[in-house]
User: Fold this.
Amino acid sequence: MLGLLEKPTIEEILQQKEGQFFDRKSARIEPRDLANHLVAFANADGGFIVVGIEDDHKITGLNDYPTKLNAFLQAPWDLCVPAVMTEHKFIDCINIHGQADKVLLFEILQSGKLHANTKDEVYLRLGDKSRKLTFEERMQLAYDRGEASWDSVPVPEFELDELDTELLERYRSMIGTSLDAHRLLLARRLAQQKDGKLVLNRAGVLLFAKNPCFWFPRANLRLLRYEGTTAETGPRMNLTKDIRLELPLPKLLDEAFRIIGTQLREFTRLVKGGKFATTPEYPEFAWQEAIANAVIHRAYNITGTDIHVKVFDDRVEVESPGKLPGLVRVHNMRRIHFSRNPLIARIMTDMEYMRDLGEGVDRMILEMEKLGLEPPVFEEYAFMMRATLRNNLEKRGLKLPARAEVTDDLAELNQRQLALLAYLRENESVSRVEYEQMFGVSGKTAFRDFQKLINKGFIKMIGDSKLTRYKLFSGQK
Assistant:
């Protein structure tokens, strides 16, 4: 992502992909048309527009359009109502004629106001398009605007020694910048200089403080694992895990992905050709995207609760404070985008935790369909947003592990031993010779595997000598 406190090269600009935060325009564009795009970015998440590059990446530059240059620079003021706040730079280049030239780069800041062009038309940036809004959409956007985004408010009490320098260095490395940490925070608008001091804003604290929850006590994520399909209380309480994560947002997602990954099951089955196939309970992309969306887009100004990830036997629920922002509704969330936390969203996009507009939800649906699962269900209730993924095990012909298998003992089993348990759930028994042939192991290895499973109470031995077979232990000898 570009930043105007570091001056990008023309090569870096050409590498940028058009989308929610970036667009390129020919210098042939009329200033009034440029104003529509400026309005669209200001009404959405802000972003960058470069003027002087064609859609096919040919650099026409500005040399041949001297009379338009001043009109371009005045467009944010003269052709937008109210004026759109921008910054601009000229970037050196060589145009298609081999001549030294320049292109014009605007940075448009997200605004707390509703902007229109001089014809009183309102545009909104949606993916790689600037779309004119209907009257109803315009009124809804007007209702949803605040005076400023919550994540841009300074936190003057924050001291720089509370920064997670390791995480900040990881971010610097990912985007390949030569800026030092302080200049990088300024360039990404996560901080400002005030009276000679670097002051982080709320986004900067949530992203890069060692302990963001010291400043925002409910900015955490809670992981809950229930045994069964309902959340019981009192004597029937079935909560088996309750983990609270208080970390900077990138590390919070890393740890949430790691822990949830240990709570979701894989199902190993014997298929044609004597091979074992492993099927995940849910596609990894789908459940990770649901959690990432909750962390990036939650309403952090709602302090009465936190993000909950609830794992049941038949579903995963991800709940976050705050209804869908702006014009986004459940029925249109695949095509309309509006960031409640635009500064956080940009950084998390840089760090590849967030997908481009529409890609995340669309891919969640596609990945669920590949496993024969229903699409995720998104719903609003009270002041919360919930995404639900259902595993539909019976329809897929998969069986839940026996109750004994949901213990920590599973973590001590290797893939062969887990595969054998899966096989025995669908087959009456197995002999040691059959096991050796299935996995290509020696008799000694097969003996050790069987002995471990017997000792842990997963299987039992039936028969004697060469007729010995093994089956799942049912609790009766």
Q: What stands out?
A: The chain has 15 helices and 20 strands. The domain at 403-472 is CATH 1.10.10.10 (Arc Repressor Mutant, subunit A). Residues 348 and 354 are 6 Å apart (CA to CA). The longest strand covers residues 86-94.
